[in-house]
Write a structure and sequence with these properties.
This protein is α+β, with helices and mostly antiparallel strands. About 55% of the residues lie in helices and about 10% in strands. Helix 4 crosses helix 5 and helix 10 runs parallel beside helix 11.
């Protein structure tokens, strides 16, 4: 269950370090070492220690790269997981008589804390994509673009994105980070379509003013229970194009949904 949750962000991050720490086999291997290989030496201490330290190195690399230290769940999860891994690595270097006298109760608790810490990191990662936080992280344009289109953890849980046409979501990865964060904030703040003004051609018109991004969408084909269809996305520099599409685009333009 834990690895499955962490694994949902693999397609968004596409990083080797994150793939490593979210791998169920790697997590299970760490748990096995913690519970069974401290108090029951098998002569493979060097291998087990390398396994622990490799996981710890990938954990540190990912956390350091993400640069989201102000998110409490993420920070606490990382610190606790790192501490447990360091303790286990140290125990593997202790004499056999010390290890065999280590209580299984403590080892099970160490494992429980390790797994819970990874869960806290997952909960923190979900918060990283808050528009108010994103700008301070090292999330890249291409990763943010994939977040828009992802249906497991991303924005496509709420919206269906069109990839047909120049101003569609097909160009998301080419927009700069500020534009993407602004559009993300606009769509998240206006999830309730009842608060939006409809246009003459039936568009749901997201945004206001000339110096802000604008989005043209259509209601779901399935009423309030379906996803709003986002057809076109305009940056703050493309207001003239937005106005032209608002007036001239066909009532039922071609819609081709993006898929990751």
């Amino acid at each position: 269950m834990l690895a499955r949750k962490l694994g949902k962000f693999r397609i968004i991050f596409e990083r080797d370090d994150y793939n490593y720490i979210s791998d169920k086999r790697k997590i299970d291997e760490i748990s096995n070492i913690i519970i069974y290989r401290i108090s029951n030496p098998d002569g493979q201490e060097k291998f087990h220690k390398e396994t622990i330290e490799t996981f710890l190195a990938n954990l540190k690399r990912f956390y350091g790269w993400l640069n989201a230290k102000n998110i409490t769940d993420l920070k606490q999860g990382y610190l606790k997981a790192s501490a447990i891994l360091s303790i286990i690595s140290n125990l593997l270097s202790k004499p056999i008589y010390v290890r065999t006298n280590t209580s299984s109760k403590y080892l099970k608790k160490f494992n429980k804390v390790f797994l819970y810490s990874l869960l806290k990191m997952y909960q923190g990662i979900k918060l990283v994509f808050d528009p108010d936080i994103l700008s301070y992280t090292n999330i890249e344009n291409r990763q943010l673009a994939r977040y828009f289109l992802d249906r497991q953890e991303g924005l496509s849980r709420i919206y269906a994105f069109n990839v047909k046409g120049y101003y569609s979501a097909g160009r998301l990865a080419k927009l700069d980070k500020k534009d993407l964060v602004d559009v993300l904030g606009l769509l998240i703040r206006n999830r309730d379509v009842r608060s939006l003004q409809g246009s003459q051609k039936g568009w749901l018109d997201y945004g206001s003013g000339k110096n802000h991004p604008r989005v043209l969408a259509k209601k779901s084909l399935f009423g309030l229970f379906g996803r709003v269809r986002v057809f076109y996305i305009f940056t703050e520099r493309e207001h003239r194009d937005y106005e032209r599409f608002l007036r001239e685009a066909p009532n039922e333009p071609v819609f081709e949904e993006a898929a990751l």
